[in-house]
Design the sequence.
């Protein structure tokens, strides 16, 4: 199964999202389809052996919308090249074993005539695995559709080179995509701004001409011309059919696809007012003969269109702000890398870096890709990826993350993960998918949105009929005004944006803090959690042993012990050698490791040789060493949950060394914050009861699950769930993946490892326990905003549609002016967007 996020163009309301979901969901091989109206994306999970992105694009295009496939961001022409071939045709033209197809664009230097273009086309077409080539000699560009399983872009470039031309690959990586999206948004804003100015100017003039009695200061000659029905008719035409052109896509949907959206409501409502007024202007005798006082509504239709466009303009600007998180992540990547190739240092585009390349990084530069340091050391700022503000020291053998910043030293490293395999690419994809997913709370809004537009049209028609036959005179005037008001006041946008807009902002903000959320449902679950299980090793503790206590002469004990342990591979031995702070090499003679007891040997200090042993009681007993003088301290340290070793020197007990996996500095503070939030905190570990209790006491935890094997951790999670608790499991995502999966909410503290990102519903990019109470608090804030948005959207539509239909008229003679309805409608969706943006603070 493949899971991908696709941008969708042409959506105008939540009902559009529902239609696209249904169309894509009907395709064989599609497991799930979630359309997010706020981010204008489709999150689809599908079987790539049964269908393809091109099939999804075709299904979406068949209902009047446009799906962009991620690697097709070059231009509309490349999009067309990829989508015009059906899945059947792909399989027919593909080389045997080839799967899928991709797009590549090359700038071909030297191709400046039709003859050159013919040579390049012939050279590329001869390659097995190339499906199609489109050569444009005017722009010196070749666009190619190929099967990546059969041929690579590098081989295509080589063929062009062999034909006598210089190919330059035009990439569509994150920075290019970002630029194109920015250009498209700015273009859309520019057009809207221009239409707004035209609409506003014409609407003001039409309004003045419609109510001359209010503007007596305007010269009579000008006003007499302006107030003529023909003049108003002429002035309203550009507003109706140019300024409001985008709304007519709703009529196309109605006629061509037998479906409707918000644009349909606006188009029908404003056209009804415009056409009625046009008939009054052109054939007033029709109304005079029937004795009906004819009124003009050119001002109504023009002002409605202008106000709704104003709302759309402000909403588009606000939405751009809502998706800033993903843009910030995309901007992090480096553009070039300094690589050692063929004995020389070359600066190449980031897209050309390959796994295994040796890369040089200087102070102040961005690290291009993920890798491992092979030479040098430095301090690296990883805050942009992990959220950790303090620089991290790195040396030979340490891993580095692409897009982080090298602060001080220079170093060489080997590229391990490049392109879409880097951690930054994983984070971007995870955030995109999370922002495109849906929370369970959105289901009701989606169901209502699916039926909303048809129901509103039925209400509007019923309103017209009731007012026409049962309303006061002139019946046509009352019927038309209320018909238009109902169509215009209805706002499925507010319903559609209520949940996804808040989730999109919240998920993006979380990513900036180093908290990666897998899907929107996880955020909804997080605020319902009432029990948290913390894995001990690596979560509450540092995850590696360290020397905590030395009983006796510290300097002498650590000197002898570290010399002896320098021959040992045991983790406790490593803790002792690190505990001394400096490594001194000494010869160890007759070294012997005794399983389950300890080690013995003779340490040669040059001036003297010392017979020494370090180990547990059993080793000392075996060697006949009296430890009675140390027994009291030994028992106390063991009761504290520490592993205690006795050091013997020349047959006598010299002292004790206690080693333990120490708790993280922030553990106690984080546990206290969780408890203050009303959460029941548990610790789970494979340690014995005594050791477990000692560690739990240090962290401030009273609920302990001890002696639990990794494979039994999930059963402990289920035990708490059976008691009616909503459980969050916090672990490293490696040996407790089943427990993370069993919990209502799995939180992986894997410092951004691939395993952790796959295992948890939420991944913490750094091992900071204080992020856990922050998750609980932030999820509550997000859900509070979602509920406010939903309440406003439901209340707005439920209260104002009846008012627009005229239910208040029999009691208080109140009717809703369609112009006010347009203002309310424009404000309703904008208010939801602005309320969601409060999460950025």
Sequence:
């Amino acid at each position: 199964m493949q899971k991908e996020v696709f941008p969708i163009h042409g959506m105008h309301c939540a009902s559009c999202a529902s239609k696209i979901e249904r169309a894509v969901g009907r395709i064989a091989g599609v497991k799930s389809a979630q359309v997010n109206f706020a981010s204008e994306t489709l999150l689809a999970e599908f079987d790539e052996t049964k269908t393809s992105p091109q099939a999804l694009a075709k299904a979406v295009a068949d209902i009047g919308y446009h799906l962009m496939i991620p690697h097709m961001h070059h231009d509309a022409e490349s999009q067309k090249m990829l989508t015009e071939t059906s899945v059947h045709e792909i399989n027919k033209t593909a080389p045997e074993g080839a799967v899928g197809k991709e797009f590549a664009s090359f700038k071909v230097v030297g191709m400046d005539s039709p003859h050159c273009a013919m040579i390049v086309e012939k050279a590329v077409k001869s390659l097995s695995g190339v499906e199609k080539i489109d050569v444009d000699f005017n722009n010196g560009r070749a666009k190619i559709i190929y099967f990546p399983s059969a041929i690579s872009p590098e081989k295509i470039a080589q063929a062009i080179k062999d034909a006598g031309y210089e190919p330059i690959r035009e990439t569509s990586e994150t920075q290019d995509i970002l630029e194109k999206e920015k250009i498209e948004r700015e273009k859309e804003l520019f057009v809207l701004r221009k239409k707004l100015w035209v609409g506003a100017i014409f609407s003001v003039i039409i309004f003045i001409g419609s109510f001359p009695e209010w503007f007596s200061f305007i010269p009579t000659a000008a006003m007499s011309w302006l107030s003529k029905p023909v003049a108003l008719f002429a002035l309203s035409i550009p507003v109706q059919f140019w300024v409001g052109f985008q709304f007519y896509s709703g009529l196309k949907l109605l006629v061509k696809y037998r479906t409707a959206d918000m644009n349909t409501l606006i188009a029908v409502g404003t056209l009804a007012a415009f056409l009625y007024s046009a008939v009054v202007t052109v054939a007033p005798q029709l109304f005079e003969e029937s004795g009906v006082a004819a009124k003009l509504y050119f001002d109504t239709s023009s002002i409605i269109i202008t106000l709704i466009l104003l709302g759309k303009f402000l909403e588009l600007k606000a939405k751009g702000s809502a998706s800033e998180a993903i843009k910030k992540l995309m901007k992090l990547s480096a553009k070039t890398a300094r690589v050692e190739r063929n004995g020389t240092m070359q600066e190449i585009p980031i897209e050309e870096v390959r796994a295994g390349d040796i890369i040089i990084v200087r102070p102040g530069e961005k690290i291009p890709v993920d890798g491992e340091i092979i030479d040098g050391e430095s301090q690296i700022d990883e805050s942009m990826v992990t959220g950790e503000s303090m620089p991290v020291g790195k040396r030979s053998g340490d891993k580095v993350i692409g897009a982080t910043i090298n602060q001080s030293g220079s170093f060489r490293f080997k590229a391990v993960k490049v392109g879409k395999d880097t951690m930054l690419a994983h984070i971007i994809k995870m955030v995109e998918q999370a922002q495109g997913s849906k929370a369970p709370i959105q289901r009701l809004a989606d169901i209502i949105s699916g039926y909303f537009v048809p129901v509103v049209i039925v209400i509007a028609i019923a309103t017209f009929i009731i007012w026409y036959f049962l309303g006061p005179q002139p019946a046509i005037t009352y019927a038309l005004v209320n018909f238009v008001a109902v169509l215009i006041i209805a706002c499925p946008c507010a319903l559609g944006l209520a949940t996804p807009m808040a989730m999109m902002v919240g998920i993006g903000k979380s990513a900036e803090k180093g908290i990666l959320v897998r899907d929107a449902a996880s955020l909804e679950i997080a605020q319902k959690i009432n029990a948290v299980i913390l894995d001990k090793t690596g979560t509450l503790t540092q995850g590696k042993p360290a020397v905590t206590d030395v009983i006796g002469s510290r300097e002498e004990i650590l000197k002898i012990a570290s010399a002896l342990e320098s021959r040992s591979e045991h983790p406790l031995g490593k803790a002792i050698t690190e505990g001394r702070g400096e490594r001194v090499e000494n010869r160890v003679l007759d070294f012997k490791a005794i399983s389950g007891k300890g080690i013995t040997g003779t340490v040669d200090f040059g001036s003297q040789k010392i017979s020494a042993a370090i180990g547990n009681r059993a080793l000392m007993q075996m060697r006949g060493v009296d430890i009675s003088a140390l027994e009291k301290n030994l028992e106390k340290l063991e009761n504290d949950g520490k592993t205690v070793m006795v050091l013997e020197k020349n047959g006598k007990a010299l002292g004790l060394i206690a080693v333990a996996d120490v708790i993280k500095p922030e553990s106690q503070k984080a546990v206290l914050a969780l408890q203050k939030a009303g959460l029941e905190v548990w610790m789970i570990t494979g340690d014995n009861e005594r050791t477990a209790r000692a560690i739990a006491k240090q962290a401030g935890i009273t609920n302990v699950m001890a002696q639990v094997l990794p494979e039994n951790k999930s059963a402990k999670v289920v035990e708490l769930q059976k008691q009616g608790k909503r459980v969050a499991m916090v672990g490293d995502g490696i040996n407790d993946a089943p427990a993370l999966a069993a919990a209502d909410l799995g939180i992986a503290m894997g410092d951004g490892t691939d395993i952790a990102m796959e295992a948890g519903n939420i991944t913490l990019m750094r091992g900071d326990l204080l992020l856990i109470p922050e998750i609980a608090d932030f999820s509550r804030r997000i859900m509070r905003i979602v509920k406010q948005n939903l309440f406003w959207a439901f209340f707005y539509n439920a209260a104002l549609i009846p008012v627009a239909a005229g239910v208040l008229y029999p009691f208080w003679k109140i009717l809703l002016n369609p112009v006010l309805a347009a203002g309310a409608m424009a404000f309703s969706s904008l208010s939801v967007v602005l309320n969601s943006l409060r999460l950025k603070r």
